[in-house]
Amino acid sequence: xxxxxxxxxxxxxxxxxxxxxxxxxxxxxxxxxxxxxxxxxxxxxxxxxxxxxxxxxxxxxxxxxxxxxxxxxxxxxxxxxxxxxxxxxxxxxxxxxxxxxxxxxxxxxxxxxxxxxxxxxxxxxxxxxxxxxxxxxxxxxxxxxxxxxxxxxxxxxxxxxxxxxxxxxxxxxxxxxxxxxxxxxxxxxxxxxxxxxxxxxxxxxxxxxxxxxxxxxxxxxxxxxxxxxxxxxxxxxxxxxxxxxxxxxxxxxxxxxxxxxxxxxxxxxxxxxxxxxxxxxxxxxxxxxxxxxxxxxxxxxxxxxxxxxxxxxxxxxxxxxxxxxxxxxxxxxxxxxxxxxxxxxxxxxxxxxxxxxxxxxxxxxxxxxxxxxxxxxxxxxxxxxxxxxxxxxxxxxxxxxxxxxxxxxxxxxxxxxxxxxxxxxxxxxxxxxxxxxxxxxxxxxxxxxxxxxxxxxxxxxxxxxxxxxxxxxxxxxxxxxxxxxxxxxxxxxxxxxxxxxxxxxxxxxxxxxxxxxxxxxxxxxxxxxxxxxxxxxxxxxxxxxxxxxxxxxxxxxxxxxxxxxxxxxxxxxxx
Length: 575
Ligand code: PEP
Ligand code: MG
Prior knowledge:
about 575 residues; Glucose Oxidase, domain 1; 3 domains; 8-stranded mixed sheet; 8-stranded parallel sheet; binds magnesium ion
């Protein structure tokens, strides 16, 4: 039967392929009964998953001994090994399979609850809090059983037309799937500027989030049409619909090819204003795509992605190599490295989320200042890489000028340690700040006196100004880049920075959305940073824009307080 589901299209394009269901949240397991003659086999499956995780832990232990991982990690591993060996988990799960003929995942999950209840009764608060470790160990065993990530053998059978369908994906999950050739991403949860959506966009494949029950309604191997522009999926379409979409897919491909011709053309408006188009990246490997896009610099290197999907922290040498590679490949073009923006939805593996509102908690620069040793390692690595190109430091989530002062002191200290070690770096490295919290936008004069440049993070600026969680699909309809307060704030930041002659860029998703290109140009923006896949479409808009014509219309948009009027004026601007 053919049917349609509607969600939020977060990455444009059309994909046609077959569903591949994944369950990254390993605790969502299937419950079923197995025939009696398969009980031994099922127990063996459980045993080999335990053995695989034990082997993983032992390898990790070795990396601690060899000095490749943090020493504190050792205590954490010992605890996890203890949990893994607890008979309540493995032994009891084995007997449960034998007695009730339930599948191994189901048995293990029931035993996990049993163990969690026992923890609940412990008086010692520290031990009681170790419940999260029990869950993590069980997740590892479940993932080992499920062949995580994502039953890839099935996906690889269909290389080239697999569509990933998940209930939810963390940014770390998406990074893992980045290496596999999916042609589209679909999730039940998510919103336009969740990091998950942002990464999906960076892959330049159609993606739809907030599909609600897609993960339950779609069956493995279903034929799917994904229309990222409309935010719809058609499940098991008939031949006529398939033909129609194949035609549209061909047209989009043609348009993409045409845009490629703009790669080496300079981004200059019709009246002769030169615009810098920079790229956003997560890892050094993304540079290939940057080269293909014709970007003239890296406007945002989200360095925190070097810290995800691993059990240890990247050391100074590893980070230095990553930053140096990018600096060298960019041949003296700007490379803006944002210090790690960890916390909230981008947490370190093994860290326990305790904050009620993680987006308002110990995230980004706040975490860096709370973990000076970890921050120092990164600052030394960035500074050392600055010898190899035009490297700049960008500080995320600034809300208070004191955070800038403290960071500048830490940078100075890192520089001194490098001088002591006789290591070279750019003594005059530029330090900029992200303007993504309303308090920063409203304290701009003070911030500008302390910083060399600004970068507007519209994703968070919208989240924090409108008090709309950027990853919560239940409030996604309230996340509005055209809200009068947002329009006013962004235009105010750009105009103030231009008046003060402080370079300013936009590196949030608005910069890569061609619907907003002329609006931002009209505010006076001359530096845009976005995913390489979005760059040529934005350049195309710039080449067709004439600032003296745009500016009066943009002034009207800034003054318009009715949303409908704003939308109408924006349509006229983009005409
Ligand atoms: C932003 O907030 O706009 C931004 C660029 O940073 P991130 O999306 O990584 O939070
Ligand atoms: Mg941000």
